[in-house]
Structure formats: structure tokens, C-alpha cells
Amino acid sequence: MRKASPSTASAPAHTPKPVHKMLSDEELGKVIKRLEMEKRFVDLTKEPPVQKKVGFGQKVTTRILKVAGDAAAEAGKQVLKQQIKSVLESQLPATGKSGGKSGKGKSGKGKGKKGKTKVWKP
Q1: CA atoms in the 13 A half-sphere facing the CB of 67
Q2: Which residue, 8, 22, 26, 42, shows the most beta carbons closer than 10 Å to its own?
């Protein structure tokens, strides 16, 4: 039997003959069996993958980033709502009985509650 030296562990343990020069199926079977056994040996002697331990700091950081992301998303929603409301208020005419200014003088009477106009809310 051949023994592989540690320095040639990555190189094949043998130099296979070209298939067309092999004389029999028996020789081909021996080569295939040898290669399969070598592959199984490598698979069996591999160290199992080590599960990565997640440290306390990484857990805390992940949680902080999630909360911060959720807060940023909520703040973005609020800003978007305010912008849409502002655009709608500027584009839609004020709803009132006279269709705009009341024309009742400078006293402010006739404008509704404390001079506020009604705003459409989605």
C-alpha cells in the first residue's frame, strides 16, 4: 500500500493512467474504488464546522439597530403624512359656504370656529 506524506496531502496520491491505455475493467474499478475511498477518508476526517457563538455585544447591537430602524421607519411615515397633508391643503380649495373669503368685514365673524378652515383628512 502507498502512504501519502503530509506534504503531498493536497496532491493526488497517484497519477492515473489515461483511460484509453487501461487494459481492463478491473484496473478501472480499482482506480475508481481508490478515489472513492480517498474522498470518503477526507470527508470523515474533516473537522465539523464550529457553530459561531453570538456574543452579548452583538446581540445588544442587533437589537438596538432593529429598534432604531423601526423608529426611523415610523418617523418617515409621519413626515410623509405631514407632507401629503400640506400639499393637499395648498391644492384643494377651502370648503365653506361662500367658497372662500366671507366678505363680512375685518371682525372675523362668519368664518366658522375661530377663523379656521375645514381640512380634508384622509
Answers
A1: 6
A2: 22
pTM: 0.32
The full set of domain ranges for the chain reads 15-45, 51-91
- In DSSP notation, the chain reads -----GGGSSS-SS-PPPGGG---HHHHHHHHHHHHHHHHHHHHHSPPPPPPPPPHHHHHHHHHHHHHHHHHHHHHHHHHHHHHHHHHHHHSPPB-SSSS---S-TT-TTSSGGGPPB----
| C-alpha cell read off for 24 | 481492463
Cell of 33: 474504488
Residue with cell 366658522: 112
pLDDT tens-digit profile of 46-101? 887 777 787 888 888 989 999 999 999 999 999 999 999 888 888 877 665 444 45
